[in-house]
Design brief:
Elements (H helix, E strand, L loop, with lengths): L1 H12 L4 E4 L15 E4 L9 H15 L3 H111 L1
Parallel strand pairs: 1-2
């Protein structure tokens, strides 16, 4: 019996007040005290203190009643959003143009680099051919120098031989003429 009395006492005196909230589109102020349980039956809710609630309610009421200051603020906010949207679209357009120019520049740079690479490769081949020709010319010059030296020795032999023959003939002629 004492147990039943304790259960009844705790259910009635110590239980928390359950406050169900099921309106998700209206603006409602519900007094909730410390220890109350709030059951929210929709996806989101804003919980604010008394001062902030009064401020939001005052702004909401003034806006609904056509207060010009709030209408102007709303209009300015809408215009600012439109300006930011147009700036964003403009920046996106400029970005697209800049990206296109960069891609074009990158493509032309790659073509230029390819042409330069080919030109350098061709110049290297030309230098190799010139070096080969120079080696052939050097070999030909060495052969020509060898021939010239051989011819010079042959000439020297002929000159010496001619001199010896000339001197011998002159001696013989001189000897015959003196006898």
């Amino acid at each position: 019996m004492l147990l039943v009395a304790g259960i009844l006492f705790s259910c009635t005196c110590l239980s928390q007040n359950v406050v169900p909230i099921s309106d998700s589109v209206g603006l409602n102020a519900i007094l909730i005290e410390k220890g109350d349980t709030v059951t929210i039956i929709y996806d989101s809710a804003y919980v604010v203190n008394k001062k902030l609630y009064r401020l939001y309610k005052d702004i909401y009421t003034k806006a609904r009643n056509g207060n010009l200051v709030w209408q102007e603020l709303s209009k300015a906010y809408t215009e600012r959003i439109a300006l930011q949207d147009s700036l964003l679209k403009s920046n996106e357009f400029y970005y697209a143009q800049l990206k296109q120019s960069f891609d074009l520049l990158a493509g032309k740079t790659n073509v230029f680099l390819d042409k330069t690479d080919n030109s350098l490769r061709d110049a290297g081949l030309s230098i190799d051919k010139v070096n080969a020709n120079l080696e052939n010319i050097k070999a030909s010059l060495n052969d020509a120098i060898g021939l010239v030296k051989h011819e010079q020795t042959q000439r020297a032999k002929l000159v010496v031989g001619g001199f010896v023959i000339g001197a011998s003939l002159a001696s013989i002629v001189f000897l015959i003429a003196h006898h």
